[in-house]
Amino acid sequence: MTEIISIENLTKRFGDVTALENVNLNMEKGKIYGIVGRNGSGKTVLFKLITGYLKPTAGRVVVSGKEIGKDTDFAGNIGIIIENPGFLKGYTGFKNLAYLAGIRNIIGKKEIRESMEKVGLDPDSRKKVGKYSLGMKQRLGIAQAIMENPEILILDEPMNSLDNQGVEEVRGILMGLRDEGKTIILASHNKEDIEILCDKVYEINRGRLELYHL
């Protein structure tokens, strides 16, 4: 077993509201994990705790051997789609990704072009993101998540707004990334996505994490 994420006794409260309670979960390299649950069940809270965008009330999250909030503020080497991807409407898709890539400055134009082409977008298109359809924006969000070749992907409803062809293409991309040894954590309301893609599925119910049986 090659463990890449370890979650121990994780609890998150917002005032009197307990979003997650005593969550324990270990994730391995080269697997896709599904997280299901009703809206407001705590899926997005869990994702934000793993990345470091939220700090736990109790317990700990260790990613690639580093405890979030102790050894590092934010998890490194993670590609993320949480909630709706936000982009600069007046820029092209390529320019948006180039701007984001400049934050860490570990990839160049070649990798940006490849990520856009992988999700079915034209990197040479002069169309501004403000004119993109919802499906195109979602594809651009996925390109953003994968462009720096992260070891871990956290994808909150990645199939939103995609047509049937887009769903099939993204499923193929995710299965290919798993075969490369990437770890993918996926939330989806589509049972078919969960059944086709995931090696293990967990349900968040009233703040508690349980193994989900398809």
UniProtKB/TrEMBL annotation:
Residues 5-214 form the ABC transporter domain. GO terms for molecular function: ATP binding; ATP hydrolysis activity. Keywords: ATP-binding, Nucleotide-binding, Transport. SMART domains: AAA. PROSITE patterns: ABC_TRANSPORTER_1, ABC_TRANSPORTER_2. Signal peptide: none annotated. SUPFAM superfamilies: P-loop containing nucleoside triphosphate hydrolases (SSF52540). Belongs to the ABC transporter superfamily. This is ATP-binding cassette domain-containing protein. The lineage of its organism: Bacteria, Bacillati, Bacillota, Clostridia, Lachnospirales.
